[in-house]
């Protein structure tokens, strides 16, 4: 069982879902869109893509997927959030919009659109802990950054003194969009996390 490809969902409510599905498939996972609780129940891990964090949070509540998602993350399901997904995995948001809820899972405080005010989007080469070889090319689009992390969260990458990649247990989050570059190493790292979790659970 453990050597079969893990099934990883991409929360398909808003954002660059297709690119994540392609990147996950390239990293040897079976990737499928997830919108409803019954689809969430069938995956070994989940990616929460970029988009508008407030919109994704409201749609997740509307589709009835927010509570089961919180429960699965609390129970240890591997989850990876990019950009808006990072915001949704934060236990705390600075200046949240009204009605904005988070899934939580990483003990960190996130500032929304933090990089957005200076420059709407840019690319930067990042050294990411756990990823060997050349730096990872990070694509930042009105990206958040992490103001601070708790003791249980591990910082994986920084850009100009700001935290842009964090891991806590089975939860991974990046400010940037690795699905837009054709470099699938961050997705491969997440697929490995899902695989390891499945072996541990079996």
Describe the protein's architecture and organization.
The structure is a single chain. With 202 residues, the chain is an alpha/beta fold. It contains 6 helices and 12 strands. The chain has helices at residues 17-26, 37-40, 53-62, 66-74, 84-89, 185-201; strands spanning 7-11, 30-34, 45-48, 79-82, 90-94, 106-111, 121-126, 136-141, 145-149, 154-159, 162-168, 171-174. A 7-stranded mixed beta sheet has the order 2-1-3-4-12-11-10. A 3-stranded mixed beta sheet has the order 5-6-9. Strand 10 (154-159) and strand 11 form a beta hairpin. The chain is globular, with a radius of gyration of 15 Å. It starts with 6 loop residues before the first strand and ends with a helix. The mean pLDDT is 93.
Strand order of the largest sheet: 2-1-3-4-12-11-10
Shape: globular
Cα-based radius of gyration, to the nearest Å: 15 Å
What share of residues is helical?
25-40%
Q: Helix-strand pattern, N to C?
A: EHEHEHHEHEEEEEEEEH
Assembly status = single chain
Output the structural class.
alpha/beta
Secondary structure: number of strands: 12
Largest sheet: 7 strands, mixed
Low-confidence stretches: none
For the terminal residues, how far apart are their CA atoms?
A: 9 Å
* Count of runs of 4 or more consecutive helical residues: 6
Q: Estimate what percentage of residues fall within beta strands.
A: 25-35%
* Mean of pLDDT: 93
